[in-house]
User: Fold this.
Amino acid sequence: MTSSITRNRITDLFAQKGDRLLNVYFTAGFPNLDDTLTILRGLQAAGVDLVEIGMPYSDPVADGETIQQSNGKALENGMSLRTLFAQLASCRQEISVPILLMGYINPVLQFGVENFCQQCRAVGVDGVILPDLPLDLFLAEYAETFRAYGILNVNLITPQTSDERIRHIDAESDGFIYMVSSASITGSTKGISEPMRAYFDRIRAMQLRNPRLIGFGINDHETFDTACQYANGAIVGSAFIRHLQDHGTSPESIRAFVGTIRS
Amino acid sequence: MQSTLEPQTSFAVTDKGFYGRFGGAFIPEMLYPNVEELRQSYLQIMADPAFQAEFQQLLEDYVGRPTPLFLARRLSEQVGATVYLKREDLCHTGAHKINNTIGQILVAQRLGKKRIVAETGAGQHGVATATVCALMGLECIVYMGSIDMERQKPNVDRMRMLGAEVRPATSGSQTLKDATNEAMRHWINNPVDTHYIIGSVVGPHPYPDMVARFQSVISEEIRKQLFAKTGRENPDYVVACVGGGSNAAGAFYHFLNEPAVRLVATEAAGLGVSSGHSAATTALGKPGVLHGSRTILMQTEDGQVTEPYSISAGLDYPGIGPLHAHLFDTGRGDFYAITDDDAMQAGFNLSKLEGIIPAIETAHALAALPKMGLTPTDVVVVCLSGRGDKDLSTYSKYL
Assistant:
């Protein structure tokens, strides 16, 4: 079954703009509990195309040290889904950029999947990325709820994902496909290798129905630029977390970071 | 020996990897090909007669199986029932853990893997993994919480002597949960040439089932040995400690569908169930997802995993295997929470009564005996999962 969802900010964005899209990730509650709106405003003002807000979790197995530590700090600061939704309650009065929530399934299960989707809809979250919720379980148990509230579920593919499975994921995805750049957790700084380019090429040649954003290991202009040659854009996470840690959350600082990635 | 690998009926895993509402494979896409490769091949590999022959031979000649079923006369007299000890502590490397690592290293070889990664809590699984890697000439990396590396130093030294690289897990509580996170991250980073040998009946399907099958040799032997000694195959109780629950899964396996046999699982209550320093998962937890399966999990209201505590590094885990969650959920198992104090006393008690120093993990199983309301006609088998040499410094400090 091919899923279909009514349009939202993510599908609208890809309809308008097909290349060099920049999606920036930050962890809610890091560096300080109340930084969420400040960072959102900063990223929007700096001209990023999408924003991914991390829902902190105690055991983020797909993440490297930088995002692990930001998750730990955010939890220490008292961040929770309830707090995050409260912070986002009126953000749509000033924030128009598409927003995704990224995190692990257990906090969402405890919050209640329906309640979660309802809250996403209420505050204006457009999509969700839950790496440890496998596609078959999502389809069997949660797809209907997500669709009822118009929330996109973004799926990942990796260099090891078979062509057959990629076709299946493409058929069941809306919005975009998150291409994990290499066999790794987040935060790699090794650059883009030849085997990675071969994988990017292979996926590009598959002519999927969904646009693709490349993430994991995208940390500077060079890696962003390379990713954009093969996909519709790229996702930066750990590098931005390090920047927030070292240079703070001011609009100037965020604009400077986005500038170094883009130009 | 065929029956070791035969599926049980009503408590068997479904083809999607569930025990009742627990289990499954909640894994990021990065691990999907690895786990799927294992899921598609593990039953076939294990059913292969050549595999069976090699597995059984190594269990006999290398591990030292069958392990004795020992009638503990003085302990029996003390608790007022007939108590047998299944002597897994006499396995090579000193605990039941090697039953699983022998099986998994043979699976890894048949999958063409060159490197093994593992997590360890008390270090027993790490030692058992390092041992089979040395035996088969495979590279071995073991993640261990840095707090556990301190309190189980002899096992760290043993792993290194066996040629393994021991890497400290420094995140979170720096114990078993965090070592498991690090091992999973390592596997994500090295998906093609590495096999992850999980040490307990936890993790994404098919691990809980595969590990339970490898450990099921424990209950297979118990039945035969008990029959030879008493003329009955079924005891009234089988008692085992549960961290993740691999020795319990192995000791329970062939009794799962024998309702006359009560299955008793003991969890670590630490300083007390309500003390805030505990690892008594079924008493304190609720359903959630950890390390790839839906199980019962100690967590906050917001779904953050709680840091567990136990004096025993092997039980210091915030979840339990999905099979055990199902046994708890259905009432098939009786779950007891045993404090540090009760476990330590039980350890000293067994040492003086029977001349056997048990691992502190195992002592949690022994500590349940006085609480079970045993009567003189009861026949009880306790899975003596490991020996206590590694715990001598903890025991001596406690004196």
User: Anything to note?
Assistant: Chain B touches chain A at residues 24-30, 32-34, 171-172, 177, 181, 184-185, 188-192, 287-292, 297, 299, 301-305 (CB under 8 Å). The first strand of chain B starts at residue 18 and ends at 19. The radius of gyration of chain B is 19 Å. The mean pLDDT of chain B is 95.
